[in-house]
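Side project, low priority. Logging it here so it doesn't get lost.
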Amino acid sequence: MTLPESPGVSLSGAVRGDSCDRLPKLATMVRRRLMAVVAVVAILGVAFGIRAWADGPLEQYSGTALYASLSYAGVFVVWPAAPPVRAGLVAVGFCWAVEFFQLTGVPAALSASSRLARLALGAQFDWVDVAWYPVGVGPLVLALRLVPARYGISGHRSAGTAPPG
């Protein structure tokens, strides 16, 4: 014997379109967050690799750009539904805030006693770093704007919609 269901309500009592609609969104958010964590690990690997084998301008400027790239990936760890451009603005803004914070001398004092603080906050303000942060974020914003939504990582279309064309 089968029981009839009333329109909009399943036998479990849940309103159709309520919890069922949230599951794909939750799965997409989990997938985005996981991809962002993988990106953070990969960026850290590249940054520490360059730091170990290079010196001078390559180490300095790539480190600055990769710090910004790491910040961009970090935005997606915290806010997986962020649109790419908005995430880019948040990441560059964060990097600039940290850079200008260096003018206070607090990061220099912390960096003198902690290698982690030196890596996270830097020690000395540099206008060149201010210019390099968008260089580390810009290509990633562009890449995510070009990735089809079916991969679940593009923020300019809702997940589950087919790309145009």
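Brief comment: The chain has a mean pLDDT of 82.
Revisit when time allows.
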